[in-house]
Amino acid sequence: MATKEDFVRQLADLRDGKIEELLVEPDNFMAFQQAYRESSFRSQIEGQAGRGGQIHYRFKTD
Fold it and tell me: Could you name the domain of life of the organism this protein comes from (predicted)?
C-alpha cells in the first residue's frame, strides 16, 4: 500500500515531467488525497476516472 510520502514524490515527478501519468487505485486514495491537498501545484493536476475506481492524474501544461 502506498503512503502519503510516496504520493508526494510521485506528484513531484508528475510536475517535473519524469512521469506522464499517475494512477491511483481506490485502496490508496486516502494517502493520495493527503499529498494532493498539501501540493502547491494541485490546480495544475487533472484527474480522470477509470474503471474499477481507478483515477488517472496528469499535469496540465497549458
Answer: Bacteria
Q: Where are the beta strands (DSSP E) in 6-60?
A: 22-24, 45-49, 55-59
Q: Looking at the 3D structure of the chain, how many domains does it have?
A: 1
30: left (phi over 0), alpha (psi -120 to 50) or beta: alpha
For 14-43, how does the pLDDT look when each residue is reduced to its tens digit (9 = 90+)? Answer: 999 999 999 999 999 999 999 999 999 999
Q: Residue 46 is which amino acid? A: E
Model confidence at 61, pLDDT cuts 50, 70, 90, reads: confident
